[in-house]
């Protein structure tokens, strides 16, 4: 077990702690949840960077990293939606979680065809991740900071994240489309 994989496992382990803190009826519990969430978001970048830098990439890490990301995002979005239910927020959450499920399935299928690199993460997907993480962080924080409406900023950023989510999904589907045709040879 190397440090990058330990960081990824810690990202998974922090999810129930963030969940518990989010629902505690204590002042600033959500802000502590935000701090742990933010630390988990930072490890998303750090673990991959260290794995590449130190030549410690592994099949386990390649599997666990996207799972950790998707769990953190999905659980956080469901918590936020449960705390402030609404049709528009529900639509944004459904778009983001639905895309994650769709692209995960697409990547698995493309890997079976030996075409995993055809649906590699591109710059739109990375930008989507940044917007998504910042939006969720703002919405977890919730309360205004120095008069700045943090939750509302997060809500607007979640719209941008949802738009980038759809755009990146369309790019992935376009890249996979030639392999989806019935006349394409399967290995």
Automatic annotation (TrEMBL):
InterPro entries: CDP-alcohol_PTase-I, CDP-OH_P_trans, CDP-OH_PTrfase_TM_dom, CDP_ALCOHOL_P_TRANSF_CS, Phosphatidylglycerol_P_synth. It catalyses: a CDP-1,2-diacyl-sn-glycerol + sn-glycerol 3-phosphate = a 1,2-diacyl-sn-glycero-3-phospho-(1'-sn-glycero-3'-phosphate) + CMP + H(+). Its EC number is 2.7.8.5. It is found in: Membrane. It is a multi-pass membrane protein. Keywords: Lipid biosynthesis, Lipid metabolism, Membrane, Phospholipid biosynthesis, Phospholipid metabolism, Transferase, Transmembrane, Transmembrane helix. One of its GO terms (biological process) is glycerophospholipid biosynthetic process. One of its GO terms (cellular component) is plasma membrane. One of its GO terms (molecular function) is CDP-diacylglycerol-glycerol-3-phosphate 3-phosphatidyltransferase activity. It comes from the Bacteria. Pathway: Phospholipid metabolism; phosphatidylglycerol biosynthesis; phosphatidylglycerol from CDP-diacylglycerol: step 1/2. The chain crosses the membrane at residues 6-25, 71-98, 119-143, 149-173. Pfam families: CDP-OH_P_transf. Coiled coil: none annotated. Belongs to the CDP-alcohol phosphatidyltransferase class-I family. This is CDP-diacylglycerol--glycerol-3-phosphate 3-phosphatidyltransferase. It comes from Hydrocarboniphaga daqingensis.
């Amino acid at each position: 077990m190397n440090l990058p994989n330990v960081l990824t496992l810690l990202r998974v382990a922090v999810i129930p702690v963030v969940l518990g803190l989010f629902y505690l009826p204590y002042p600033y519990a959500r802000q502590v949840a935000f701090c742990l969430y933010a630390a988990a978001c930072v490890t998303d970048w750090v673990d991959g960077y260290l794995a590449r830098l130190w030549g410690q990439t592994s099949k386990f890490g390649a599997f666990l990293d996207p799972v950790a990301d998707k769990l953190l995002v999905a659980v956080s979005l469901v918590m936020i939606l449960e705390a402030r239910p609404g049709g528009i927020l529900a639509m944004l959450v459904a778009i983001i979680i639905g895309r994650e499920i769709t692209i995960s399935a697409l990547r698995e299928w493309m890997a079976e065809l030996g075409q995993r690199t055809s649906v590699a993460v591109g710059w739109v997907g990375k930008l989507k991740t940044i917007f998504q993480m910042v939006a969720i962080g703002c919405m977890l924080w919730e309360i205004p900071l120095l008069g700045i409406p943090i939750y509302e900023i997060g809500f607007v950023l979640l719209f941008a994240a949802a738009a980038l989510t759809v755009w990146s999904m369309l790019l992935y589907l376009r890249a996979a489309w030639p392999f989806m045709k019935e006349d394409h040879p399967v290995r």
